[in-house]
Write a structure and sequence with these properties.
2 domains; about 140 residues; mainly alpha
Length: about 140
Amino acid sequence: MNDDTRINNQLAAFTDQLLAGQETAEASAEVHDLAEVVRRIRTVIPPNSAVDPAYRAQLAQHLQMEWNLQYKPKGSRWQNRRVLQLMAAGIAVAVLLLVLLAQGNEGEGEVQGTALGPLPWVLVAALGAAGVAALIVWY
């Protein structure tokens, strides 16, 4: 159980004790400040007061909105648009360098065993880089 869950459970237990009529309920040091807020709300709202259903619905909606704003699930690193743009730019630069290096080689030290020269290897490298980029974007 992480610290946030433990603190939430402690505060909920304190609130339950307070609502059950235990005015002397003690809160731990971790939730002391929040416990004071609960006590103040308890003094402002009488125990047997009927809450307007419209107000209750509005309050629940605001609490849900605030919760969603505070506790957004963290997305994958790959879902970040900036990371994808930088990765695509890096792959494009690598492919461009491969093409330029392959064209700059005037026949010395080429891969042996091909009758067509370096062009097929450049195409294979470019297609491979495009495939890797597609896999990265896909996943």
